[in-house]
Write a structure and sequence with these properties.
SH3 type barrels; rod-shaped
């Protein structure tokens, strides 16, 4: 009985270390092109805002202000992404209403009564908000040197 328990504990520990040892860069490689990125580089105070072009095991290729750049994986402390969401078409809806009201003012006996007219137009704009950024990659903490 104790052999079975020992075997199960060993299998559970092996499964836990296999998932824990998974490379966090895999999530970056799984991102779709055109995803919005917020890249925190080593030693930089502000994040770099960019659009993803492609990612491989060594680097990411991004677009910043119509300029393509490659950043090595080693230079990135943290990477946040806003996933590409296929947005429904934005539309503008125009509503026009016309109201004709009778004219109650006295008129000369020879002239016809002229009704008053008013028109109003309103526009409404449909839009969707973007999803929040999600942290996709954090540089793993290096083990202490002995």
């Amino acid at each position: 009985m104790s052999r079975i328990a020992l075997l199960l504990i060993t299998a559970a520990l092996a499964a836990g270390t296999a998932t824990g040892a998974e490379d966090p860069w895999v999530k970056v490689q799984a991102l779709k092109s055109r995803a919005e990125l917020r890249i925190y580089k080593k030693g930089a105070r502000e994040p770099l805002m960019a659009t993803l072009d492609e990612a491989d095991g060594e680097r990411i290729v991004i677009v910043v202000k119509n300029q393509q750049l490659a950043i090595p994986k080693e230079d990135i402390d943290r990477l946040d992404a806003r996933m590409v969401v296929k947005e429904p078409r934005k539309f503008v809806k125009e509503t026009t209403s016309k109201v004709t009201e009778p004219d109650y003012t006295p008129h000369p006996p020879a002239g016809p009564a002229v009704p008053g007219e008013s028109t109003s137009t309103s526009f409404s704009h449909s839009s969707t908000s973007k999803p929040d950024f999600e942290t996709v990659y954090r540089r793993p903490v290096a083990p202490p040197k002995n």
